[in-house]
Design brief:
This protein is mostly helical. It has 2 domains: about 55 residues; about 120 residues. Helix content is about 65%, strand content about 0%. The chain is built from 11 helices and 2 strands, in the order H-H-H-H-H-H-H-H-H-E-E-H-H. A two-stranded antiparallel sheet has the order 1-2. Helix 4 packs antiparallel against helix 5. The longest helix has 18 residues. The radius of gyration is 17 Å and the shape is globular.
Length: about 200
């Protein structure tokens, strides 16, 4: 999956956006097109943002996340419990951002499967250094951009429940609804489950 996406720093303009994605998904299920959703979000300030520029910056990412969710995932996002909905938002981010996907699969998933529930700053630094060696695009990121991405990665993990405590770096395997787990496996996204600590076949 990750190979289909280019590395990008777009996440600097769109972090977890839980409630925003729920609103976009709701409009999508009503049959509105991306163009109609974007227009409605901006004209009616659906997210109650202070600045229109913030709406314009976050909306493209939200539309991409919406478009990688099938109808079942969209329905579950709107109707299931909070933890299940948060896992679906996390899934959508991983499906639309290569760097974050690789961070979760190569660092976080590996830690959780090895019962290592402590995230250190060096883990993130080494990850970005490794990616900079692999990719000219990542190597071209300014230091400020890199730090912002590291902060956003941390924020997403906090809001999704994988990172329990920012100061201590304590990690946790989130509870995932059995129906959601089975569905992700059925659509070929077992790696997403492994990235949050679930072993194959679990």
């Amino acid at each position: 999956m990750s190979q289909e996406l280019e590395y990008s720093a777009a996440l600097t303009g769109a972090s977890f956006l839980f409630f925003e994605l729920k609103k976009v998904v709701s409009l999508s299920l009503e049959g509105q097109t991306d163009k109609e959703i974007k227009q409605k979000v901006i004209e009616e300030n659906l997210f109650d943002y202070k600045f229109v520029s913030s709406l314009k910056r976050s909306t493209p990412a939200l539309l991409k996340r919406n478009n990688v969710l099938d109808e079942k995932l969209k329905e579950m996002l709107l109707n299931e419990d909070l933890q299940t909905a948060k896992v679906i938002v996390l899934y959508a981010i991983m499906k639309t951002d290569r760097l974050f996907y690789e961070w979760m699969t190569e660092v976080i998933g590996e830690k959780l499967r090895n019962n290592d529930f402590y995230l250190e700053k060096i883990d993130s630094n080494l990850f970005f250094e490794h990616k900079a060696e692999q990719s000219e695009k990542v190597a071209s990121f300014k230091e400020q951009t890199r730090r912002k991405l590291q902060t956003i990665h941390q924020k997403i993990m906090l809001e999704s429940g994988i990172l329990l405590e920012k100061k201590t770096g304590t990690l946790s395997i989130p509870l995932i609804d059995e129906e959601l787990r089975d569905h992700l496996i059925s659509i070929g996204d077992k790696k997403i489950l492994q990235a949050v600590g679930y072993e194959e076949g679990a």
